[in-house]
TrEMBL record:
Chain ranges of the C2 domain: 51-173, 188-320
GO biological process: exocytosis
Protein name (database record): Synaptotagmin-like protein 2
Stretch list, region Disordered: 1-29
Species this chain originates from: Oreotrochilus melanogaster
Originating gene: Sytl2
Gene3D superfamilies on file: C2 domain (2.60.40.150)
The entry's keywords: Cell membrane, Exocytosis, Membrane, Repeat
Length: 350
């Protein structure tokens, strides 16, 4: 059924510590979000200030240096955030969507006490032109609050596939409220086809080499469809797997790399033993897909299979955040011992 397989032991007892031990918190720190910049495109104070005003900028692509340039000139008539003091401290932020994690954000300096800031700054992205043409530019204006959450002042979104690249002039654009695509549609990262199975301790009869005294979780990663295409040739992808809260080398497994394919077939099975039935409510299987490059691998998307309670062995953790689909998939496995449960789950930012 699979062309590669991994089998490792998984021990939970060393993680069953109270927060006062200190060593547990260091374990949790190593399970931080894969890409911090991903969250900031959604975070902030939306809705407390009505979007108004305009922004002047120009777009250009430097063929020689393979660089996308956003020349941010100025803004006019922005909303006032602090009504009492009659002030706003605005700055401009840009993302290339949907691939926020790879390209990251760029932002201008902060101009204090003005609703008509002048920037004259260039925000630069090193990116191939063919890859740029499948992106959208999200340009937003924010009030900087060093003591709290920054306030959203408006945005504009441009489909770069239809942009007139002969137009290098500075132009004015009206700022709009938060777009639905920025909130919902930009995070499509593909779907993973997989099966999982739980084998309870001793469920197959007396203990023998093929029937260990502890339970097993089997994970069969079949294929992934519609990955983000980061290069014209496609992506060189592989899948990582951890069973959290264990982030040690014993927990870590990965598939081989499938080159130049946005629909890779992995057909890889991983078996984790050392499971007891009560561990299933506190553990989380994290599967992440990565683009392989020489210097650094790039996060493409992932799933987390668990109960999504926010707790692991009584301790609050940020990675126990499974979606409804992921929770339902895990619950079905828990209720159907020794049976393969098939699923097709969307990849997401973690």
């Amino acid at each position: 059924e699979s062309d590669t397989a991994s089998e490792i032991s998984f021990q939970f007892h060393k993680h069953k510590k109270t927060p006062s031990t200190g060593s547990h918190s260091s374990d949790m720190a190593s399970v931080s979000s894969v890409s911090g910049s991903v969250l900031s495109v959604y975070s902030g104070d939306f809705g407390s200030v009505d979007a108004q005003g305009t922004v002047e900028f120009a777009l250009d692509y430097d063929e020689k240096n393979r660089e996308f340039q956003v020349h941010v000139s100025q803004c006019k008539d922005l909303a006032v955030v602090d009504e009492k003091k009659g002030r706003s401290d605005p700055y401009v932020k840009t993302y290339l969507l949907p691939d926020k994690a790879r390209m990251g954000k760029r932002k201008t300096s902060v101009k204090k006490r003005t609703v008509n800031p002048i920037y004259n700054e260039v925000l630069r992205y090193k990116i191939e032109k063919m890859v740029l043409l499948i992106q959208k530019l999200n340009l937003s204006v924010w009030h900087n609050d060093p003591l709290g959450r920054n306030s959203f002042l408006g945005e504009i979104e441009i489909d770069l596939a239809s942009w007139d690249w002969s137009n290098r002039r500075l132009n004015w654009y009206p700022l709009k409220p938060r777009s639905l695509s920025a909130v919902n549609g930009v995070d499509h990262r593909g779907v993973m086809n997989l099966s999982i199975k739980y084998v309870p301790p001793g469920s197959l009869g007396k203990v023998c080499p093929k029937n260990p005294p502890s339970g097993e979780v089997h994970i069969w990663v079949k294929d992934v469809k519609d990955l983000l295409q980061l290069r014209p040739s496609g992506v060189d992808s592989f899948v990582k797997c951890y069973v959290l809260p264990d982030t040690s080398k014993k927990s870590y497994q990965k598939t081989r790399v499938i080159k130049r394919d946005t629909n890779p077939v992995f057909n890889h099975t991983i078996v984790y033993d050392g499971f007891h039935t009560e561990d299933l409510k506190d553990a989380c299987v994290e599967l992440t897909v990565w683009d392989h490059e020489k210097l650094t691998n790039h996060f493409l998307g992932g799933i987390r299979l668990g109960l999504g309670t926010g707790l692991s062995y009584g301790i609050s953790v940020d990675w126990m955040d499974s979606t409804q689909e992921e929770v339902a998939f895990w619950q079905e496995m828990m209720s159907a011992a020794n049976e393969w449960i098939e699923g097709l789950l969307p990849l997401r930012s973690l």
